[in-house]
Amino acid sequence: MDTVDPSVRRRQKRDRQVGNPAALRMGVLWFVLGAAGAFVLALPVALWFDALRAISLNAPSGTHVSGVSVPLVVVGLVAGMLLAGLGLPVAAHHLDGYRAARGGGGWALAIGVAVFALGVAFASRGWVAADRVGWVVTDYEPPEPWGRGQWILYYADLWLPGLLVMLAMLLVWSAVRAQRRSAASAATRDRLLTEGMRTTGTISELRIHRSSDDSGGRHVAGATATVTYVDAAGTRRWVTRKYSDVSVLVQGGAVQVLHDPARPDDDDSVFVSFLREPAALDWV
User: pTM of the predicted model, to two decimals?
Assistant: First the structure.
């Protein structure tokens, strides 16, 4: 039995992270582990790609990837996926908590892809060389000229890391846009907390989202709530918001709505809190 509202307990735990050096240290530690995992993951992936590349460029009797320990490659794949898949999201969580902000996940993904590209570029320096550039040489048949696909694979040490870097740059651009939107939304929220109007709304529709795990089980992964409220002019309006803490959402339940009377049609100027005593970050 607990005498404290679970949602309040979660908020208190979150508030303790804001500006806390321990949260910053944990974020940096997990970031280093996640980035290392992305680099480690790139090495066996690049090795696998090199093996396929050598099969295409060289004859069966020619030079190929050899002396590779399959268990070591598997360990590298598993360790890299675990470290990157766990470390970067956890780092984003801690750093978001430290900064009292949202949106660190986009940066985590962009950095993970960039480090993965660095790992592929590093591994490609040791890729198997072509026995004869432009030709597949065998012991029993005349040399055969390379096709278009083989030339593409030959230069893969240049375009593959470059393609990953371009993807990382695209993700950075997306993260910057998301951060700017988040900052603008936070500024609007802070302004409305002093100048806006609060009213009581009702959850008119609630859709629970579920996702599957590796074992085939399904668990709750948040919800989408449609909230109806009456604005300052007496007009009934509806807004839809996603929320992760399903335990505080009840169909037909009361919520708080913060809106701008001067801009009633602007969805970005409407914020909803599903908690009774919301902090600034509780408005979505």
Answer: 0.77
